[in-house]
Design goal:
alpha+beta; Leucine-rich repeat, LRR (right-handed beta-alpha superhelix); 3 domains; Methylamine Dehydrogenase, Chain H; six-stranded mixed β-sheet; 668 residues; 9 helices
Length: 668
């Protein structure tokens, strides 16, 4: 039953009233009201309501049809509002306050200034002059840019005699392109700009060209900017690429080639002739981690990227795909969130004195109030300073940090079973396990160290064993590959390694080698890359690790299942990754290429009890060659692929380089 009744409305009227239609001032604050409690049928009877106080409640949005035609003053302070666009239903609104709604940003202020033509006071400030600028000057500039974008790139693509299908296609492409490429105003308002550009573009199509608005375009995604960390426009980085990094002809290799021509999908919209039909096409080349936003920065190294998990709600839930098309990348002083499909930099976080080496996602169920819980994705980022930054992405808020180590952190990862458990591997030759806690509604949290794993050398990559992620952890280190027992019911907080693994060397087995790539292909098969040139090993965890053995620091021989043929370079720290759902391994090289291995024909045999080692090295299924890019008319310097990661469904492939370029490929 709704908390709001006719009797309550009459009682909370100021002064009290006997008729709903006579109420002009109404105080509904501090009632723990949720959005569902605002019944449009009941509120529609408040025909003369002018002042409404809804402060200190639990509202996350407004219903679209409250029908308060005479409303002039609205107080929504201290709620959980996530969107303001429904306020356009109150066209006479003159005073609006919504302070202490943590999900609302400066972009939302500009939206209400545009939507509410009579608004004078916003959060207690006179916004008359600014609102006029937003409604007139800003709109005029954006309209000019949208029109110019159509004239330059799309006008000639629509035939004089066009079919409905052609109209639908051109509308979709134009709306997508114009939101991506039209930039105006300060970077902190980029989400508002994108919202207005979409609106203006739809109006332009409807009224100037006679194309209806009800297109089947994709819904606009909210792309808030971080206000805690310094930010830049969602398109600034990509715009840099469109003007500075220009793809020319791309030559690619494929295991089964076939001739054909394809149109480039890069931001430069460059025509290309593909010599071979490949399974992946380049979408975007982004230069978004530049120091000081410099277009001349081709020195910043990019190190880590992880796809954002899908929250378990609504249309985004998909039992097959466990991540979105949003990827977090890090390098230099910044962490970026990128939409892989559009190439838009959705958010950017900067710490001027930091160099980020690693990022990791977890999903925390946070208590928003006594009666409401909500799942939110939290991003952990760490690097040279030994500090872990904890970022609540939806709220654009870096809510805390953990001073985890006194030396740089090489890599971080969350436990797949314990959402608050974070592992940090550091140059201090320690791997620490932290409980980061769950922040309350005021973002207070308490982090505690649960475990310290002592390593004989610097840990570079870590991986939890999929079949027992709460018991064993593997680490690739400067001096070999090690395993630890991480079970928390053991009394010992500081632990030495339990096992070190031997691998084939040129003539014998050795434990002394750098392991700079480490990942699980499935529950049992480990993929590791060592300093032995031209070789990536696949080996069995269950057959290599003797769980029944006693004592620490035991030497065990890795049971090799196969070797993957890879570059003969002696260059270190070019790491690998896996896509378990598709049984793929990826690894970049010193020439900007990505080596891809489809191992689906091998895994069944490896999983059998009598599975034998593949006699020959397995060649790559495909090598994606780095395209010939032009930087100010010249080719960039030597390109190393530091990392390459696919989303779980292998729709997108994100390539991080040594020259501050993020390349995004899409599987055809």
């Amino acid at each position: 039953m709704s908390k709001i009744t006719t009797e309550l409305l009459l009682e909370r009227a100021v002064p009290r009233s006997t008729r709903l239609r006579k109420i002009e001032t109404l105080n509904l604050s501090k009632l723990q009201l949720k959005t569902g409690d605002l019944d449009p049928r009941l509120f529609s009877r408040l025909r003369h309501l002018q002042k409404l106080d809804l402060s200190d409640n639990l509202l996350d949005k407004f219903p679209n049809s409250l029908t308060l035609p005479d409303l002039r003053v609205l107080n929504c302070n201290n709620n959980k509002l996530e969107d303001v666009t429904a306020l356009k239903q109150f066209p006479l609104l003159e005073e609006l306050t919504y302070e202490n709604n943590v999900y609302l940003t400066l972009n939302d202020d500009y939206k209400v200034m545009f939507l509410l033509q009579n608004l004078r006071l916003l959060n207690g400030k006179d916004i008359t002059k600014l609102a006029n600028h937003v409604r007139r000057v800003n709109s005029r500039k954006l309209t000019s840019k949208v029109t110019a974008h159509w004239e330059k790139f799309f006008r000639d693509k629509l035939p004089e005699k066009h079919t409905a299908e052609q109209v639908k296609s051109i509308k979709k492409k134009f709306l997508k392109s114009v939101q991506t490429n039209v930039v105006y105003g300060p970077s902190s308002l980029s989400e508002f700009t994108r919202w207005r550009v979409k609106m203006i573009a739809e109006e332009f199509l409807a009224y100037s060209l006679g194309l209806e608005l009800n297109s089947d375009t994709e819904p606009e995604e909210k792309t808030d900017e971080s206000e805690e960390e310094s930010t830049e426009s969602p398109r600034e980085a990509a715009e840099d690429v469109a003007q500075v990094v220009t793809p020319s002809k791309r030559k690619r290799n494929h295991s089964k080639s076939s001739p054909g021509n394809k149109r480039s999908k890069t931001q430069a919209n460059t025509e290309e002739e593909a010599a071979e039909d490949v399974s992946a096409e380049p979408l975007h080349f982004l230069q978004c981690h530049s120091k000081g936003n410099s277009r001349e920065d081709f020195k910043t190294q990019l190190w880590s990227c992880v796809f954002e998990p899908v929250l378990d709600s609504g249309a985004r839930k998909d039992p097959i795909v466990s991540s979105s098309r949003t990827v977090a990348t890090c390098g230099g002083e910044s962490v970026c969130l990128i939409d892989c499909e559009t190439g838009t930099v959705l958010k950017k976080y900067k710490v001027a004195t930091e160099e980020f080496f690693s990022v990791a996602w977890t999903t925390l169920t946070m208590v928003i109030s006594d009666s409401r819980k909500k799942a939110h994705n939290i991003l952990a980022a760490a690097g040279r300073r030994g500090i872990v930054k904890l970022i609540h992405v939806a709220a654009d808020f870096c809510y805390g940090e953990i001073k985890a180590h006194k030396k740089p952190i090489a890599t971080v990862c969350f436990s797949p079973t314990q959402e608050t458990h974070l592992f940090t591997a550091s140059y201090d030759k320690r791997i620490a396990l932290w409980d980061i806690g769950i922040p309350d509604c005021d973002y207070n949290f308490k982090a505690s160290q649960l475990l310290v794993l002592e390593t004989a050398s610097i840990p570079l990559r870590i991986a939890l064993v999929p079949t027992c992620p709460e018991q064993y952890l593997l680490a690739g280190c400067e001096g070999g590959c090690f395993a630890w027992n991480i079970k928390l019911d053991k009394g010992q907080k500081s632990r030495p390694f339990e096992a070190i693994f031997q691998f084939p060397d040129e003539e014998s087995m050795t434990t002394s080698h750098r392991v700079d790539g480490l990942a699980f292909l499935n529950d049992d098969v480990v993929v590791s890359k060592s300093s032995k040139p031209g070789c990536i090993y696949l080996w069995s965890w269950s057959r290599s690790f003797d769980a029944k053995g006693k004592g620490c620091q035991r030497t065990m021989s890795a049971v090799i299942l196969a070797e993957l043929e890879w570059s003969t370079t002696d260059m270190s720290y070019l790491t690998l990754s896996t896509c378990p759902a598709k049984e793929y391994v990826f690894c970049g090289d010193e020439k900007g290429s990505v080596w891809m291995y489809n191992l689906s024909n091998y895994t069944a045999a490896w999983g059998s009890a009598k599975g034998k080692r593949s006699e020959r090295r397995i060649s790559p299924t495909q090598i994606l060659k780095w395209p010939e890019l032009r930087v100010n008319g010249e080719q960039p310097p030597e390109i190393l692929v530091n990392n390459v990661v696919a989303d779980p469904a292998f729709t997108y492939l994100v390539v991080l380089t040594s020259v501050n370029i993020t390349a995004i490929w899409k599987k055809s």
